[in-house]
Every structure is written in C-alpha cells, then in structure tokens.
C-alpha cells in the first residue's frame, strides 16, 4: 500500500516570504551573537551590495520575548553580491561567534492523508514504504515546527 503523501507549496512566512522568491538572492545568516544589532549587521551586509530585503528575527513569546533569534535573512540584488557575502562572511568572527552564511531555502511541507497533518519534510518518516510513524513525540514535533 503506497503512502498518500503530497508535497504542498507551503512556505513558512518567517523563513521565506512569497515576494522574496522574485526579489533578488536570499541568504540565511546564523549563529549571530545576541549583542549584535540590526543596524550593525545591516551596515556589514551593505558592504557587499544592494540589500533589497533584511529580516532580523526576534522571539515572540516565552521568557525570550523580544530577544534576537540568532539568525536573519537578507536579499541581495545580484547573485554575485550574495556569493561574495557568503565567501567573505561565512566563518568570520563577529563579536564572540563565527557567522554561518548560506543560501536560504524554502521550507517545503507535506500533507499526510493518513493522519490529516501537515509535516515539514524533516519530520516525515524516513521510508515511504512504512506506515507514517516517527520516534518524536507530538510535543517534540510541535516544538520543531515552531522553531
């Protein structure tokens, strides 16, 4: 019996907005020091070219509300600018942490008809021939999706 799983063109708005697919070349920048400000990071990124969009993310709830999440997204106008930013910034020490800079990817989700759930690919079972099972508890799945 073949598992009924379809790929849905859903995207997590905080990870990749629909408009950003057409507005330049999007990078994910992670391992940000909590002390770095939006202003200083934006000034650093502008050295590599025209920044079309900059998304510096903050926690929305819990005890960390209002504090930076430790990563951001940036759209450059040209591929050359984005590649130069990756080459120059990836692994560079900024304050107390080494940056991780790479191409941003859309988060694809799948709908499992057997369980009536939408799961990110990372939470899907590893084999499509087995029934939809996972070693993660529902609470762990929820936390992974929220993160």
Automatic annotation (TrEMBL):
Domain RRM: 25-106
SMART domains registered for this protein in UniProt: RRM
Residue span of region Disordered: 122-147
InterPro entries (alphabetical): Nucleotide-bd_a/b_plait_sf, RBD_domain_sf, RBM18_RRM, RRM_dom
Any one Pfam family match given in the protein's UniProt record, by short name: RRM_1
Gene3D superfamilies the record matches: 3.30.70.330
Highest taxon in the source lineage: Eukaryota
GO molecular function ontology, one term from the record: RNA binding
UniProt name for this protein: Probable RNA-binding protein 18
């Amino acid at each position: 019996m073949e598992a009924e799983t379809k790929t849905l063109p859903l995207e997590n708005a905080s990870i990749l907005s629909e408009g950003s697919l057409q507005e330049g070349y999007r990078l994910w920048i992670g391992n940000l020091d909590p002390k770095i400000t939006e202003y200083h990071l934006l000034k650093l990124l502008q050295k590599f070219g025209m920044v079309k969009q900059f998304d510096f993310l903050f926690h929305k709830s819990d005890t960390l509300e209002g504090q930076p999440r430790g990563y951001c997204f940036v759209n450059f106008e040209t591929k050359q600018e984005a590649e130069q930013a990756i080459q120059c910034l990836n692994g560079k020490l900024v304050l107390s942490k080494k940056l991780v800079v790479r191409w941003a990817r859309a988060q694809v989700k799948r709908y499992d008809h057997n369980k009536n759930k939408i799961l990110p690919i990372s939470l899907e079972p590893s084999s499509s021939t087995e029934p939809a099972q996972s070693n993660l508890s529902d609470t762990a799945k929820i936390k992974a999706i929220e993160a």
